Structures are given as C-alpha cells and as structure tokens.
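Figure 3 (text version): structure tokens given as input.
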C-alpha cells in the first residue's frame, strides 16, 4: 500500500485567519497598511495623515495590532507603529498577512495622502535641521554623549579598506558627513568623494575640515539624497555613519542609496541598535531611538539590496552600534 503526503503550513487552522481578514476588511485600514510599507508613524502623525481624531485612529490601530497586521515600536514616551518585522514562517497567518501586504502595495497612494506624508517628513527634517543649527558648535560633544567617534568610525573604516582592496572602487558618497571627520578616510581611498548634508552649519564645518587637512578631491553638496539623484551621479560606495537616526524616513535612504549605486556597489551603514534612552532625542537631536537589525535588513531587501557582513559593538553606556553592509547585485 502506497501512501502519499503533502507538506502543509505549520498552522492549518482557518480559524486563525478570520481576525486577520476582519481587521483588514476596511478601506482606511488598508490605506494605513499602505503608508506603513516603509515608514513608521505615531498615532498623532497617522491622525494627521488621515485627518481624523486620535481616538478613532487609536481604535483602528488596536484592532490591527491585535490581528497581527501591525506592531508597536516604543520611541521613548511615544508609541509608533510599523508592519511586523518577522513574517518568515509558513504559518497560514504569516502567509495571509504577507499576501495582504503584497496586494495592497500594488495600489498607488492618493496624491493628497502622499502630500500629507511629505509634510510629516518635512516636519521631522526641520526638527533635525533646527537642532543642528542650535548645536553646531557642540556637535562632537553632543554626539559623544552616545558614542565616541572612533568607536564606530574605525570599524567602518576597516571594513571599507578591506572591501576597497578587493573591489577597486573609485567613487564614494557620504550621507550626513557632520563635521567631516570621516572624509579624510574616504579621500585617501577614493578618486572622487562627494558628501551631502541638509545642514548649512554642518557643511561649513565639513568644509573647514577639508581645508585644514588639504582634501582636494571632496565635493560638498547642500541637500538630501534626492538632490544627488537629481544631479545624475552614481557611486561605487555609499556611507552613512550614525545618520539614519536623524533622518525623517530611514527606509527611503535605502531606496535612494540603491538608485545612486553602480552595479555591484555597496551601502555601508553604522548606526545605533534599538534602545530606550529617550534623553538622546533632546540632547543629541535623534528622531529615532536606534533600529532593530531586522528593520535595516527589511528596508534593504525592499530596495533590492542584499545584506552582507555585520558587526555589533557594545558600549559602556548601554548603547550598541551596528555596522552593516548591503550590496547591489551585478
């Protein structure tokens, strides 16, 4: 007697699916899922996006969270919401949620909703610019409350040197150079170095660093990654040292990096792991309290980048820094 068997998902109970489809069976909730494709928003921001009262938005978020469609992310005293990071099993529930996400992502966002999202990002960006304008003279001191420059700069530089020896890169873009402390490392290795920053005050300090150290192969651009994209430039390597936690939409940096990279290029990131030290927002101008490694990996995958080597550095003050590389395939 011959028996046959089929491979079934780890969970085969359709009862588990009912809350998911019930929670997603509302046009507004589907739009919420859509705007959370890459971004993380708080309740107040989502209320602003959809022009509704906070109590109503909180109800929708509670239902979606209970069904597993969203997960909360604490940023100090505030709660933000994002899509779940770990949906990699073959359980029916994970399969259903992934299918909902893939389907809803095919629908373009309404023009007004896109404008509302851009408005919130600009509010975040202005908050960051204002901080650095106020504290430009104390930049290094403020940053080293969290991590001394050398603690993350040296491991990042070592990784770049190792990759450069193998890849023979020629051009590099640094996003958010700050005072320009990392530019001498890049200028020594690369023929062409470009650095972009949206803070005039920090660019002035980076320019002074270039003059003081005789760097004549560095170009400084005031703006954001969109500014560099508009110039039509591409690079072999893109570097973001302790920058992501200052930008309005970290996930978009991965998309822009992928667009700015040559085939076979690499995006190297050093940034904080997720933490709960809320004072960093007021004292260091942080918009985000670090990131889960899975977040960076997911954003990279969404941008078509493949995760490579990773290094984690524990600091005495309770912070942890992650150094990551993400590759654009040939």
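Below: residues designed for each position.
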């Amino acid at each position: 007697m011959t028996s046959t068997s089929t491979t079934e998902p780890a969970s085969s109970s359709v009862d588990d699916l009912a809350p998911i489809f019930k929670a997603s069976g509302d046009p507004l909730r589907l739009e919420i899922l859509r705007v959370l494709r890459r971004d993380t928003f708080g309740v107040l921001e989502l209320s602003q996006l959809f022009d509704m009262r906070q109590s109503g938005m909180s109800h929708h978020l509670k239902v979606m969270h209970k069904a597993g469609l969203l997960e909360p992310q604490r940023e100090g005293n505030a709660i933000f919401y994002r899509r779940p990071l770990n949906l990699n099993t073959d359980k029916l529930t994970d399969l259903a949620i992934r299918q909902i996400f893939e389907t809803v992502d095919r629908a373009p966002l309404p023009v007004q909703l896109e404008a509302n999202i851009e408005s919130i990002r600009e509010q975040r960006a202005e908050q960051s610019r204002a901080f650095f304008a106020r504290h430009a003279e104390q930049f290094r001191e403020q940053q080293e409350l969290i991590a001394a420059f050398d603690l993350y700069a040296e491991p990042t530089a070592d990784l770049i040197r190792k990759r450069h020896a193998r890849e023979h890169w020629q051009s590099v873009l640094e996003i958010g150079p700050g005072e320009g402390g990392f530019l001498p490392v890049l200028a020594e290795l690369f023929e062409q170095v470009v650095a972009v920053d949206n803070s005039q005050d920090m660019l002035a300090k980076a320019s002074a660093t270039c003059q003081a150290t005789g760097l004549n192969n560095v170009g400084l651009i005031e703006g954001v990654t969109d500014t560099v994209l508009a110039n039509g430039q591409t690079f072999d390597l893109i570097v973001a040292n302790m920058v992501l936690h200052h930008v309005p939409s970290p996930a978009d940096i991965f998309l822009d990096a992928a667009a700015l990279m040559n085939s076979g290029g690499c995006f190297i990131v050093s940034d904080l792991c997720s933490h709960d030290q809320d004072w960093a927002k007021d004292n260091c101008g942080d918009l985000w309290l670090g990131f889960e490694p899975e977040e960076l990996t997911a954003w990279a995958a969404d941008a078509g980048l493949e995760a490579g080597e990773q290094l984690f550095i524990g600091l005495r003050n309770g912070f942890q820094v992650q150094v990551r590389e993400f590759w654009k395939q040939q």
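Residues 36 and 82 are 6 Å apart (CA to CA).
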